């Protein structure tokens, strides 16, 4: 009896390893003439695995400074995550609603124990949940992660600018009508990146973000500020007001029904970087836009605007008047309702977009810590006209951690604070 039990355990372990190999896309060569095909497929599969890994890291809460560490243990997490995509709907937006909560990296054993998605139970739970807004004042919101259900968009109410990233991911049980009640015309700017990944039922972004103009790319997902990946039902991007991606490039890939990716002049939007646009819908089968200048368009109805609007020189994008106070997005900094090129000498530049006092800079540490913005041990501190998270080269943290001092001055026995 004991021998049978041992044999059964050994058989189970062997079968588990074989299944794991298949999940990790290992393969064997079947012919001596398959060298070229194998090499091409190998490169493509490795590239796909790498992109899956990096997106997986983002949506699981991996910090940006770890993105280049492709350790096998974490890769196993992504494989497990990809094969068990059920995410606990009851946790879908608690990371946005609870202050001072760090993101959790789930272990493979935890992922396997997550409940299967249930449309009925999810809808009941979502209707009864109140989403806390992430606005920190004057329409400014922190990083936002929306997943599992379209009802999570309620957290974005009132956001004019997102200081951080916006991730919209993993909505497998939604239909087009679920997104129709949500529109955010006030949102004009995202300082980090925008990621859309595996959101079923969503066909266009035109109603969600009709006035999004600027993605600054201060935070990137690898090298990308705008990524649309594996969106099965998306037919058009539709961000007709988007005119500026200040840093980072674009990756739009594996969206089988997506049109109008090659009818855009991305060079007038993306400041620098190499865009990756491939494996999307067949443009030949998409409605045309020959009526648009040079054939550039977001959709068959909206032509791409390639000329800058006539606004004040300090405006970045559109405006509702001719003065520096009437810009929707500032080219540099906003201070007392005006767009300015530099912050006044008694203030500090924060996130390259607004001016704050010394106390306001330090109080940023009291906000909930958003992953990809602050690493462990980092803190916002005023230094040399800017509100920074770490001291530059040649300086070290002061004892109160909210200042920097010169290494040279400390070696001489004198501690000099810069703020």
Describe the structure using short key phrases.
single chain, 419 residues, alpha/beta, ten-stranded mixed sheet, three-stranded antiparallel sheet, 19% strand, disordered C terminus
What does this structure look like?
A hairpin with a 2-residue loop joins strand 15 and strand 16 (386-388). Helix content is 22%, strand content 19%. The model is unreliable at 18-34, 62-131 and 409-418 (pLDDT under 50). The protein is built from 9 helices and 19 strands. Strands 1, 2, 3, 4, 5, 6, 7, 8, 9 and 10 form a 10-stranded mixed β-sheet that branches. It starts with a helix and ends with a strand. The chain has helices spanning 2-23, 35-60, 72-83, 94-97, 108-112, 119-128, 176-179, 358-363, 407-411; strands spanning 135-137, 140-147, 161-171, 189-190, 194-199, 214-215, 224-229, 244-245, 249-255, 276-280, 333-335, 338-340, 348-350, 354-356, 381-383, 386-388, 395-397, 404-406, 417-418. Helix 2 packs across helix 3. With 419 residues, the protein is α/β, with parallel strands linked by helices.
């Amino acid at each position: 009896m004991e021998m049978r039990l041992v044999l059964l355990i050994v058989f189970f372990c062997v079968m588990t390893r074989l299944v794991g190999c298949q999940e990790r896309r290992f393969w064997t060569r079947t012919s001596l003439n398959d060298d070229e095909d194998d090499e091409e497929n190998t490169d493509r599969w490795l590239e796909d695995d790498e992109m899956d890994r990096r997106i997986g890291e983002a949506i699981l809460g991996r910090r940006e400074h770890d993105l280049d560490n492709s350790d096998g243990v974490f890769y196993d997490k992504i494989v497990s995550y990809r094969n068990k995509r059920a995410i606990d709907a009851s946790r879908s937006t608690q990371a946005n609603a609870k202050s001072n909560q760090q993101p959790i990296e789930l272990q493979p054993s935890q992922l396997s124990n997550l409940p299967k998605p249930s449309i009925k139970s999810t809808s009941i739970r979502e209707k009864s949940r109140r989403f806390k807004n992430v606005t920190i004042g004057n329409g400014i919101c922190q990083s936002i992660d929306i997943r599992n259900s379209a009802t999570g968009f309620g957290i974005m109410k009132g956001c004019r600018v997102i200081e951080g990233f916006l991730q919209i991911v993993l909505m497998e049980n939604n239909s087009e009508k679920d997104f129709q009640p949500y529109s955010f015309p006030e949102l004009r700017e995202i300082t980090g990146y925008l990621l859309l990944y595996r959101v079923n039922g969503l066909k266009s972004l035109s109603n969600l973000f009709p006035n999004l103009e600027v993605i600054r790319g201060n935070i990137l997902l690898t090298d990308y500020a705008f990524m649309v990946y594996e969106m099965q039902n998306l037919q058009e991007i539709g961000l007709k007001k988007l005119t500026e991606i200040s840093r980072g490039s674009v990756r739009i890939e594996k969206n089988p029904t997506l049109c109008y990716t090659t009818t855009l002049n991305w060079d007038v939007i993306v400041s620098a970087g190499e865009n990756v646009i491939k494996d999307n819908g067949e443009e030949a089968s998409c409605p045309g836009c020959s009526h648009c200048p040079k054939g550039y368009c977001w959709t068959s109805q909206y032509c791409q605007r390639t000329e800058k609007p006539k606004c004040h020189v300090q405006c970045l994008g559109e405006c509702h008047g001719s003065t520096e106070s009437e810009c929707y997005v500032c080219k540099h900094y906003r201070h007392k309702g005006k767009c300015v090129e530099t912050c006044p000498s008694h203030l500090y530049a924060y996130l390259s977009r607004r001016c704050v006092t010394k106390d306001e800079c330090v109080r940023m540490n009291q906000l909930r810590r958003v992953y990809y913005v602050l690493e462990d041990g980092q803190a916002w501190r005023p230094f040399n006209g800017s509100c920074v998270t770490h001291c530059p080269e040649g300086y070290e943290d002061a004892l109160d951690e909210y200042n920097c001092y010169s290494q040279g001055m400390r070696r001489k026995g004198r501690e000099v604070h810069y703020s």
